[in-house]
Amino acid sequence: MTAMDTIDYARYDRIRPIRWTGDALELLDQRQLPFATLYVTSRSSDEVAEAIHALIVRGAPAIGIAAAWGVVLAARDVDAANGAEALAKLEPAMARLNTARPTAVNLAWALARMRAVLPSAGPDWRDVLEREARAIETEDLAANRGMGASGAALIAPGSGVLTHCNTGSLATAGFGTALGVIRAGVAQGHIAKVFAGETRPWNQGARLTVWELQEDGIDATLIADSAAAHLMKTGQVQWVIVGADRICANGDTANKIGTYQLAIAAKHHGVGFMVVAPSSTVDMATASGDLIEIEERDTAELLSFRGERTVAEGVGAWNPVFDVTPHELITAIVTERGVVQHPDAISMAKLFA
Ligand code: MRU
């Protein structure tokens, strides 16, 4: 029996943010959660690109999966005798999908996979694309389950953990990355207490993560982002566990804004810092974190709450939505290919060269 066999996935893995109906893509509208569970239907690749940009679907792996289905939708509007011919005709739609969000490498990775199957495809190239999109989704779920077990194995029984943003079923094909480790760790008794930061300004932690955990019957305690260092100082957490949007060749990791300050606080307090991400998030072509494009979003996210302005008129804001944690601050990167302890360019190359 493996560690994965001890996890009841029917209990711990019920939410699905992406549904392919056969002729349309249904995306769980994450702007409406937790009070409304509504799916938005996309019937074209441009609608998928807009859904990614608007955060209807979000989280690095989920963005990649949605983009892959976006290519399947784009294929509906293309007339081509074979995959090679289709490839050129699909390029504008794929370019628009690629620019929907800049930081998560899973988007470009998924589009590259969709491109790669076309040159050798014959007249059934549309079926080939659909099979590839399905494979991307299925492989992500399997990777998450594997990472859940190997991440949980690093955590001593009875530990407290803090997570940031939302890295769960909502952000992936299912089960989640960092949240998958937390699900597995709770199931196996390694994790006794879960804290989630609210993740200002979009509140992925407050609106999504604690809701997801509640759906599973996992007790989670919400904290203000600004309470994290105090939480660590009071000895209540032994690990910070986060996901990633891009992991560079030297282990530097881009993730939701606020991750970097959590890593600094964790180092100061002797708390472990675990990054959990599938190999589709690893970008060996980018040498270090200072080369990553950091998305900046509309300052309205910061100046308003649910459409209502909360800050005096005339006040400006700066809204970078990701930051980069230097590899020196990371205790372990957990992937489905293996765990990189104290990552650097050498240890990363051993697993991903
Ligand atoms: O802006 P978001 O909500 O897409 O940002 C998501 C994150 O930063 C996640 O931590 C990351 O994508 C990993 S999701 C498994």
List keywords for this structure.
single chain, 353 residues, alpha/beta, Four Helix Bundle (Hemerythrin (Met), subunit A), Rossmann fold, 2 domains, 7-stranded mixed β-sheet, 4-stranded mixed β-sheet, 16 strands, globular, binds 5-S-methyl-1-O-phosphono-5-thio-D-ribulose
Global outline: globular
Strand order of the largest sheet: 6-5-4-7-10-15-16
Q: Which CATH class of the largest domain applies here? A: Alpha Beta
Structural class of the secondary structure composition? alpha/beta
What does this protein structure show overall?
This protein is an alpha/beta fold and 353 residues long. It folds into two domains: 4-143, Four Helix Bundle (Hemerythrin (Met), subunit A) (Up-down Bundle), CATH 1.20.120; 148-352, 3-Layer(aba) Sandwich (Rossmann fold), CATH 3.40.50. The protein is built from twelve helices and 16 strands. The protein has helices spanning 9-12, 45-53, 60-75, 83-98, 105-116, 125-152, 178-187, 204-215, 228-233, 259-269, 300-303, 345-352; strands at 18-20, 25-28, 39-42, 159-163, 191-197, 220-223, 239-242, 246-248, 253-256, 272-276, 282-283, 304-305, 308-309, 322-325, 332-335, 338-341. The strands form four sheets. Strands 6-5-4-7-10-15-16 form a seven-stranded mixed sheet, sandwiched between helices. Strands 11-8-9-14 form a four-stranded mixed sheet, covered by helices on one side. Helix 3 packs across helix 4 (83-98), helix 3 runs parallel beside helix 5 (105-116) and helix 3 packs antiparallel against helix 6 (125-152). It binds 5-S-methyl-1-O-phosphono-5-thio-D-ribulose. 5-S-methyl-1-O-phosphono-5-thio-D-ribulose (MRU) is lined by residues 58-61, 104, 165, 167, 171-172, 177, 204, 243-245, 255-256, 321.
